[in-house]
Write a structure and sequence with these properties.
Length: 236
């Protein structure tokens, strides 16, 4: 299994994105790394906390698509099982780059972590990107988890999610903090989410360890708990 872990690399951002891109392309013939890639094409890519930004991830995405598409006489050079992109300053723009990757890896992808990024779904363009992104999972057959915790997705993201996943197989969802606002201010949306929950194996809300204090210890005048790091995590 090819574990591509860049956590300890000193470079970040676009420079790291270029480095990852080169490493992935090296797996494609006639590059020297192709022999090892043919023997073991399974890849787990971990780029946690490296500040890639949309620009840096665009480089990674391009190389991933190229390597995932390759299928020579000896087989494939990349079978993407895990992709960890937590804390990389990614926006909805990167979801657009991710959609074709998810489709290409639909038979292998097990874990996708997009937590602690800057993904928000507010504008019409972002809604369109989000819906296409969610639809890209429609043929995933071994996916176990996708994590969006600590992203201020917003109510519109849940409306689209409900519409899309009401048609899909059961998933285990952990929803962001702003679900409470959706449930209180958008009764129609919360009703739809509740209906979706019945189709899921489990529906729960998680938070920061700091938010697990008893109610007696909470300051009712504080908004700290309203902005806590709840997040969307789906596990099949």
């Amino acid at each position: 299994m090819g574990r591509l872990n860049y956590i300890n690399r000193k470079i970040e951002g676009l420079k790291l994105g270029n480095a990852i891109s080169k490493d992935l392309v090296k797996r494609i013939p006639p590059s020297a790394g192709s022999r090892a890639a043919f023997r073991d094409p399974v890849v787990e890519l971990d780029v946690s906390g490296k500040g890639l930004s949309d620009e840096g991830f665009a480089e990674v995405a391009s190389a991933l698509i190229e390597s995932l598409k390759f299928n020579g006489d000896q087989g494939r050079v990349v079978r993407l099982e895990e992709l960890c992109l937590t804390n990389n300053r990614l926006s909805a723009t990167s979801l657009q780059a991710l959609s074709p990757i998810i489709k290409l890896a639909s038979n292998d992808l097990r874990d996708l972590d997009l937590s602690e990024n800057n993904i928000t779904i507010n504008t019409e363009a972002e809604v369109a990107i989000w819906e296409d992104f969610l639809m890209s999972f429609s043929h995933c057959c071994v996916l176990r988890r996708m994590d969006f915790s600590r992203n201020a997705l917003g109510p519109r993201a849940f409306e689209v999610m409900t519409r899309v996943y009401a048609k899909q197989e059961a998933v285990d969802l952990v929803l962001p903090a702003d679900l409470e606002q959706v449930q209180s201010n958008e009764r129609r949306t919360s009703t739809e989410i509740a209906g979706l929950g019945r189709r899921l194996r489990k529906l729960s809300v998680v938070s920061d360890p700091d938010d697990l204090d008893s109610d007696e210890n909470k300051d009712p005048k504080s908004d700290r708990h309203k902005g806590s790091g709840h997040g969307l995590s789906a596990v099949l």
